[in-house]
Ion_trans_2 domain-containing protein
Amino acid sequence: MFLQRLRDGIAQLMFGLRMTNPRQCIPLLLLLIVVFYLFMGSACFWFFEHDHHEQSVRKWYMNLAVNRRHFARSISSRIFNDTRNLLIIIDREQSERVQVRNSIKSKNPSPTTLIGWRITDELQLLVESLKRYEDRVEMRAPDRNEWTFLNAFNYAYSLLLTLGHGVKIPETSGGQACHSTKFYLRNFT
């Protein structure tokens, strides 16, 4: 019974589409054009802005790590009264730290090695303390998912409806050109 009603409904729909006046399809055609226009605009914004935003987020995290490490070194130099020998030990590269670990494991460490190992541990402790402090302060890292395709579609939709931009704005020249083109087409045509 249900299948028969479904078949009859589909047959009536197909017959109705064949017999309709072409002018009756214009609103549907306009709606399809607007949807296509929105998808093309969101694809342009996503294409231009997604990679640039990912790169800026990576750069932000890298700068955070560098600044944290630099701050920990400056604190440790103040703690040890700017003693040059201790700063030389702090600035050793990773390969020298591996040698320090190996000499400690061999239970034949020199006093300089023990001091260097202790300072390296304290420097790492300072970096971890800074991370905990940043968590408590609630530093806001940039959102990694700001320019997803759905958010780009939302941005294109808000441009079409003249709702405004909110927080997101295109940063690349391609995204700004796409934004200007959509603005021109919406307001002056």
About this structure: The chain has one domain: 27-188. The mean pLDDT is 71. The chain is about 80% helix and 0% strand.
